[in-house]
Amino acid sequence: MSSLETALYPIEFKVNGENRTIRVRAAEILLFTLRDNLGLTGSKSGCNNGDCGTCTILVNGITMKSCLMLTVEAHGKHITTIEGLTNSPVQNAFAHNQAFQCGYCTPGFIVNCEGLRNVDPHADEETIRVWLESNICRCTSYEEIHNAVKDVFTPKKI
Questions:
Q1: Residue-averaged pLDDT of the chain
Q2: Which of 57, 83, 61 is closest to 71 using CA atoms?
Q3: Rounded to an integer, what distance in angstroms lies between the CA atom of residue 94 and that of residue 116?
Q4: Measured between alpha carbons, how far is residue 29 from residues 72, 129, 134 in Å?
Q5: Whose CB among 22, 66, 83, 95 lies 3.0–4.6 Å from 55's, allowing a Cys bridge?
């Protein structure tokens, strides 16, 4: 076995409901594993230091910036990317409210909002506002994004 092979660690985790086993370097960042090794390109590389939110994913249902997480830390975890939220209520609210411009930040916002639904399914206006501060939209589509998220948390009349 070469030294390169021994420097790889086996990682088993569930990604978007599918069991996956891969081998990675100890220093590999989860964002790049998702994009380069697994072909899940919805999570974007923006700032690479956790400020912009374009790489947001769910780890066991909780939001996480994948640029700040080593792939080896994902061992045994359930990872959800934007690809795992197709036709979710959050994604549908974003489409209905036209809450995107260039679309680069949109996956991170949708995943972030899904994370909020997981931890606070009855989030109020202030909680939504604070929660959205962890993602940046450079095209200033904030009003539409805020409306979309508000729609998700507004009780529907029957």
A1: 92
A2: 57
A3: 15
A4: 9, 29, 20
A5: 66
**How many residues in the chain?**
158
The two structure tokens encoding residue 93: 């609210």
pTM: 0.91
- Separation of alpha carbons 81 and 91, rounded Å: 12
Amino acid at 42: G
Between CA 100 and CA 47 the distance in angstroms is: 19
The strand pair at 78-80 and 8-15 is best described as parallel
In SS3 terms, the chain reads as CCHHHHCEEEEEEEECCEEEEEEEECCCEHHHHHHHHCCCCCCCCCCCCCCCCCCEEEECCEEEEHHHCEHHHHCCCEEECHHHHCCCHHHHHHHHCCCCCCCCCHHHHHHHHHHHHHHCCCCCHHHHHHHHCCCCCCCCCHHHHHHHHHHHHCCCCC
Contact between 62 and 119 (Cβ < 8 Å): yes
Q: Which of 92, 94, 96, 125 is nearest to 109 (CA)?
A: 94
